[in-house]
Amino acid sequence: MEPILAREVAEQQFDKFCDDFDIDRDTDKMKEKDAEGFNEEKEVLIAAFMDGRLELNENSEPVYKPKRPGFPNPLTFREPSGADLMAMDRKKSGEDVGKMFAMMDAVTKSVPGACSKLKGPDFKVAKAIMVLFMG
What does the pLDDT profile of the chain (135 residues) look like in tens digits? Predict the structure, then answer.
């Protein structure tokens, strides 16, 4: 598939997202493992920007249009608030994946369980956004 955005423009969008939400992207200051993880998440998001499925709205919030069927509307990822973090408290200790999806539902203002239906590349993009927000 032909990219919709040039890589350079996609990287600018990624940088804008990081700047507007105070996401540290100085990998020289990160532990090696953290820098590798950051770069992996960055590449997922740059690819999503390039294929036109990820955009920033007027508030610089990532808006993602899932590839797989099942989501009629795009997901808008808002900066997590304390209330969004508290959504994880409803899950038991050890339910880390459930906690992540509960917070993802809260951040996207989706009905509970909606984000757990994300598949493959859609899940990877949503996870990358959440990892950077929580970084």
Answer: 688 999 999 999 999 999 999 999 888 898 999 899 999 999 999 999 999 999 999 999 999 999 887 776 899 999 998 887 777 666 667 667 777 888 899 999 999 888 999 989 999 999 999 999 987
Q: Where are the alpha helices (DSSP H) in 54-95?
A: 82-86
Q: Round to whole Å and give the CA distance between 106 and 91.
A: 13
DSSP character at residue 90 = G
pTM recorded for the entire structure: 0.89
Distance CA 114, CA 85 (A): 17
Answer for the pair 51, 40: CB distance below 8 angstroms, yes or no.
no
Distance CA 45, CA 70 (A): 21
Q: Give the closest residue to 20 by CA, choosing from 81, 62, 64, 54.
A: 62
The span from the CA of 86 to the CA of 108, in Å, is: 14
Burial class (CB in 10 A: 0-12, 13-18, 19+), 102: buried
CA distance 124 to 38: 13
5 CA to centre of own chain:
18
